[in-house]
Amino acid sequence: MNEIRSEILKHLEKNSKADLGELAILLGTDEISVANEIADMEKEGIICGYHTLIDWDKAGRGFVNALIEVRVTPQRERGFDHMADRIVNYPEVTAVYLISGSYDYLVSIDGKTLMEVSRFVSEKLSTLEGVVGTTTHFILKKYKDHGTILKHEKKEERIPVMP
């Protein structure tokens, strides 16, 4: 990969709304070249999509996020990809990773309630043929997500004393 592509990707990963003109100046090239490189990388599947990081709690619409560790028995001649292809198709699933360690996948899901997430795990994920174990971890608070530090305002807990 050439250096200009690498630099474009670094900037877009931090801010997908980066201004093409600003990128061109930073990279010492013209705006059309930057736009063409981005379009080419989208066509080639290097850039797979653009996402907006939202603090849903601040927006007034909280979600329950969970990370599910999944252990499977890989199927002969299908390996791990076949099971991953099944899991990624559930709308609740936001990410699936093949991982090292005592589990095979790390599955990220969103739900409206703890019960909804628990039902998904027990009724859909755990019942898939080949799944031999799951462990669910509920995300209680996010401090950093996708490289962005999420600022949480501290509320004053002490009562002011009037003189």
UniProtKB/TrEMBL annotation:
InterPro entries: Dimeric_a/b-barrel, Tscrpt_reg_AsnC-like, Tscrpt_reg_AsnC/Lrp_C, WH-like_DNA-bd_sf, WH_DNA-bd_sf. Residues 68-141 form the Transcription regulator AsnC/Lrp ligand binding domain. It comes from the Bacteria. One of its GO terms (molecular function) is sequence-specific DNA binding. One of its GO terms (cellular component) is cytosol. One of its GO terms (biological process) is response to amino acid. PANTHER family: LEUCINE-RESPONSIVE REGULATORY PROTEIN, TRANSCRIPTIONAL REGULATOR AZLB. This is Leucine-responsive regulatory protein.
